[in-house]
Design goal:
It contains five helices and no strands. The protein is mainly α and about 110 residues long. This is Transposable element Tc1 transposase. One of its GO terms (biological process) is DNA integration.
């Protein structure tokens, strides 16, 4: 196996002491959302790609029925490889518009 001898030794030692090799609880502030809520956030954003993080934070309640921030939603989406997006606000350009803009730029480039 391509495992360091020290790693193997420590895993055997942990198995002997605790009867398991899973990670022990760590210190730090607990997450305000549960894994199920995180999965729901990701699923909602996959279904509606233009759902904003602030809208999701208003719809979702964390542990103990507390509100979660938009930054929390952004972090949860980021760990899943997603980003909260907002729809483009501006004029909708057709192919003809794009072609005309290219012609104008070429005329005025000189």
């Amino acid at each position: 196996m391509n495992v360091n001898r020290t790693t193997n030794f420590k895993l055997r030692q942990r198995l002997h002491e605790t009867d398991t090799v899973s990670d022990r609880p760590r210190c730090g502030r607990p997450k305000c959302t549960m894994q199920r809520q995180d999965r729901n956030l990701v699923r909602n954003h996959m279904n509606n790609r233009f759902l904003s993080a602030s809208a999701s934070s208003r719809q979702t309640r964390g542990r103990n029925n507390q509100r979660i921030s938009a930054n929390t939603v952004r972090r949860r989406l980021s760990t899943s490889g997603l980003r909260a997006r907002r729809p483009y606000i501006g004029p909708i350009l057709t192919q003809r518009h794009g072609h005309q803009r290219t012609l104008w730029a070429q005329e005025h480039a000189a």
